[in-house]
Write a structure and sequence with these properties.
Blueprint: H1 2-21, E1 30-34, H2 40-48, E2 53-56, H3 59-69, E3 74-77, H4 86-92, E4 95-99, H5 102-111, E5 119-125, H6 141-149, E6 154-161, H7 169-188, E7 195-197, H8 204-209, E8 214-217, H9 219-222
Parallel strand pairs: 1-2, 1-8, 2-3, 3-4, 4-5, 5-6, 6-7
Helix pairs in contact: 1-2, 4-5
């Protein structure tokens, strides 16, 4: 448990160093702790160390944690979403990062409880064109984004991507730059967007350099995936 606390401090230091190097305010970058597969005790340790936002891929596992921890955490759904699971996400999460179909977005909007604020959403963009990954082709984003933005139960915040892995920092930056430029075009088209969800344990520095406002960090906080 001590390692999680130390790891969080190290990740926060990496974010700060990367932001300063890029001439950015470190406070403009949120840390999303990717807690999928992790036991409840790990999340409790992270919360005690000041972490609030957690990202989950697996709905049933996430619901157990949400019921146990409730408002002590802010819950982000970051995995692919099937139609039969939209209601639970609409009812229990504050964010979803993986919208790539209008039908799913419309279901989430209609199922969002009226007593909750609009569900924050990001469109997932398959920026590297990998067939093994979900997400919109970059050319599809301009058509879908304004339609999602019109849905009353949602608030379109920005874009998310999970690019192909690369070791070279220059190569790491390229897809993040493309995502930033895509969001800037949407902003010029009149959409009020403020979120670039990009960057993980191995490439957060490259993501911050290209404008990430939220980095999704799992391994560097919790260690290797349990399954």
């Amino acid at each position: 448990m001590r390692n999680i606390t130390e790891n969080l401090a190290q990740v926060r230091a990496r974010i700060t160093k990367a932001a300063v190097a890029a001439g950015r305010d470190p406070r403009a970058i949120r840390l999303l702790a990717v807690s999928k597969t992790r036991p409840l005790a790990d999340l409790e340790t992270a919360i005690a160390a000041g972490q609030r936002a957690f990202g989950e891929n697996y709905l049933q596992d996430a619901l157990v944690k949400i019921r146990a921890l409730g408002p002590a955490a802010e819950w982000h759904f970051i995995g692919p979403l099937q139609s039969n699971k939209t209601r639970a996400v609409a009812e229990h999460f504050a964010w979803i990062h993986s919208i790539d179909r209008l039908r799913i977005a419309a279901r989430l909007s209609s199922q969002r409880p009226a007593d909750l604020p609009p569900l924050n959403v990001c469109l997932q963009v398959n920026i590297s064109g990998e067939t093994s990954k979900s997400g919109l082709h970059p050319d599809e984003v301009a058509e879908l984004a304004p339609r999602v933005a019109e849905l009353p139960g949602l608030r379109l915040r920005g874009l998310m991507t999970l690019p192909a892995a690369a070791r070279d920092p220059v190569q790491q930056r390229q897809p993040f730059r493309l995502l930033r430029e895509l969001m800037e075009q949407l902003q010029r088209d009149g959409l009020e967007l403020d979120t670039l969800s990009m960057g993980m344990s191995h490439d957060l520095e490259a993501a911050v350099a290209e404008g990430a406002t939220m980095v999704r960090i799992g391994t560097a906080i919790f260690g290797a995936r349990l399954r």
